[in-house]
Design brief:
Layout (H helix, E strand, L loop, with lengths): L3 H22 L6 H24 L8 H15 L4 H19 L1
Helix pairs in contact: 3-4
Length: 102
């Protein structure tokens, strides 16, 4: 069995869900609280996907260097560093942790 029927079904469902919002609301604006929740859904989903990708199968293959780098990114952004400096800092931290743990 090929995965294409599933891919097409997910694409159609995604399109239908995206179209349902404007159809249901029409010209009305969302309440501010709903806009905040919707705005936070994408970062929360991304954080979950990154966590699962980093942790591996049942948290057995956690890479300490990658975990340290991913922890450093929001901390460096909180310090208002520009994104290139954040990426370099996270890469350097990952290299140092990898060197210390091998």
């Amino acid at each position: 069995m090929t995965p294409w029927p599933t891919v097409v079904a997910v694409a159609v469902l995604s399109f239908a869900l995206k179209a349902a919002g404007p159809v249901a609301l029409g010209e009305r604006e969302l309440p501010p609280r709903a806009r905040v929740v919707i705005a936070l859904m994408a970062p929360a989903l991304l954080a979950g996907l990154v966590t699962v990708g980093v942790a591996g199968d049942r948290w057995r293959t956690v890479d300490p260097a990658l975990l340290a780098a991913l922890t450093a990114v929001p901390l460096l952004r909180w310090c208002r560093l520009p994104m290139p400096a954040v990426l370099v800092g996270a890469a350097v931290l990952a290299a140092v942790v990898r060197r210390l743990t091998t």
